[in-house]
């Protein structure tokens, strides 16, 4: 969704359209999260009239899909892979291995026990 | 007498050599900007001429040896000799106690009541940095007058990952990686909350590389009516809600659509009340 895209490139990792899209989704989610929470608060607040709750429900359902957390997907920041990402490092397994071997990940080393 | 004559002769020789050098086209000062730029380029492109010493050596002058021969010293190097009496008194002085203490284990104060006030956890992947910083924290606590227990070694956190060596298939050949987190706990007992805050701020200011910090601060208050926390108004305690969200709720409820909804709700309710 181009209306959320920054005018200038604002990420420093591996760039492809899917990584960019995910980045935008994360930003939009962070921006609109207070609003979503507020609407949810109004919906669950039983002291408010029924009509107000209904209005809040309507508004919540009309919000853009990018404001949902379920849209966010972990992607490899080194290669853009979308599956099998190690969430501790936000990298695919092979990129993790390469970076760990070259000592780019703090504290991670080859194990032997 | 002879030595002095020799030196004079050598000085004259050096001077004549300097005259020769001056005559050399390489030592002429550039007259125009273009010439200057060309010369600068030349100097940059010639790696042997990057510093003055090398240039002098190239020209056959050994400045360091010459300085030694003539007994020259760099400015600031020479010191007036101390009076022997003063020197004796100076050597008899001992170092201040707190300077001596640096070479010993950190001092600690004993807690009177043993009430834990703050638990500081230090974490790292490289133990040396942690040991150093834990020592620093203990000393800081001592000099701030805080009784500190520790550093208590906590169990290490070992995380392991196994990944295939290849980027594609070949699952049979894999590699293991691990990350071991070392932890230390420093507990402050009986400290005044403000002093504890000052101690934590001091540690945060002098953070050491490769060491993470986490502090749990405990507050105690009297039972009964002397309640020091945020005042509870009405039935709903909104103080625990996210302030950002509550601000947004207010904003939303002031919107036209919500105002309309409120008005409708009131209109629906009104006949019931009158009936």
From TrEMBL, chain A:
GO terms for molecular function: DNA binding; structural constituent of ribosome. GO terms for cellular component: mitochondrial small ribosomal subunit. One of its GO terms (biological process) is translation. InterPro entries: Ribosomal_uS14. It comes from the Eukaryota. The keyword Oxidoreductase does not apply. Keywords: DNA-binding, Receptor, Ribonucleoprotein, Ribosomal protein. The keyword Ribosomal protein applies. Transmembrane segments: none annotated. Belongs to the universal ribosomal protein uS14 family. This is Glucocorticoid receptor-like (DNA-binding domain). It comes from Lophium mytilinum. The lineage of its organism: Eukaryota, Fungi, Dikarya, Ascomycota, Pezizomycotina.
UniProtKB/TrEMBL annotation, chain B:
InterPro entries: Ribosomal_uS10 (IPR001848), Ribosomal_uS10_dom (IPR027486), Ribosomal_uS10_dom_sf (IPR036838). It comes from the Eukaryota. Residues 119-216 form the Small ribosomal subunit protein uS10 domain. Belongs to the universal ribosomal protein uS10 family. The keyword Ribonucleoprotein applies. GO terms for biological process: translation. It comes from Lophium mytilinum. GO terms for cellular component: ribonucleoprotein complex; ribosome. PANTHER family: 30S RIBOSOMAL PROTEIN S10 FAMILY MEMBER (PTHR11700). Coiled coil: none annotated. Residues 24-43 are annotated as: Disordered. Residues 24-36 have a biased composition (Basic and acidic residues). The lineage of its organism: Eukaryota, Fungi, Dikarya, Ascomycota, Pezizomycotina. One of its GO terms (molecular function) is structural constituent of ribosome. Keywords: Ribonucleoprotein, Ribosomal protein. This is Small ribosomal subunit protein uS10m.
């Amino acid at each position: 969704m181009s209306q959320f895209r920054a005018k200038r490139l604002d990420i420093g990792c591996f760039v492809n359209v899917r990584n960019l899209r995910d980045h935008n989704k994360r930003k939009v989610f962070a921006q609109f999260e207070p609003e979503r929470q507020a609407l949810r608060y109004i919906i669950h607040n039983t002291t408010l009239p029924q009509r107000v709750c209904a209005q809040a429900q309507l508004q919540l359902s009309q919000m853009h899909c990018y404001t949902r957390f379920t849209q966010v997907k972990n992607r490899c920041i080194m290669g853009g892979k979308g599956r099998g990402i190690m969430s501790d490092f936000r990298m695919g397994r092979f990129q993790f291995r390469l970076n760990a071997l070259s000592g780019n990940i703090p504290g991670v080393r080859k194990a032997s026990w | 007498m002879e030595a002095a004559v020799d030196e004079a002769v050598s000085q004259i020789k050096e001077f004549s050599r300097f005259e020769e050098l001056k005559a050399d086209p390489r030592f002429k000062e550039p007259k125009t900007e273009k010439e200057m730029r060309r010369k600068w380029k030349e100097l940059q492109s010639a790696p042997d001429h990057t510093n003055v010493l090398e240039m002098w050596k190239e020209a056959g002058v050994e400045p360091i040896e010459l300085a030694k021969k003539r007994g020259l010293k760099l400015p600031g190097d020479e010191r007036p000799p101390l009076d022997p009496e003063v020197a004796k008194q100076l050597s008899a002085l001992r170092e201040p106690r707190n300077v001596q203490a640096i070479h010993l284990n950190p001092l600690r104060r004993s807690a009177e009541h043993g009430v834990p006030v703050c638990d500081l956890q230090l974490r790292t992947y490289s133990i040396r940095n942690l040991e150093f910083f834990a020592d620093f924290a203990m000393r800081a606590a001592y000099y701030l007058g805080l009784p500190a227990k520790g550093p208590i070694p906590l169990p290490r956190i070992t995380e392991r990952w196994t990944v295939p060596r290849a980027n594609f298939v070949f699952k049979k050949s894999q590699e293991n990686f691990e990350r071991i987190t070392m932890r230390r706990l420093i507990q402050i007992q009986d400290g005044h909350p403000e002093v504890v805050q000052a101690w934590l701020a001091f540690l945060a200011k002098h953070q050491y590389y490769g060491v993470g910090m986490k502090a749990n601060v405990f507050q105690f208050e009297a039972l009964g009516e002397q309640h020091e926390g945020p005042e509870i108004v009405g039935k709903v305690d909104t103080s625990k809600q996210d302030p950002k969200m509550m601000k947004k709720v207010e904003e939303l409820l002031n919107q036209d659509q919500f105002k309309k909804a409120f008005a409708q709700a009131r209109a629906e309710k009104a006949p019931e009340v009158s009936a």
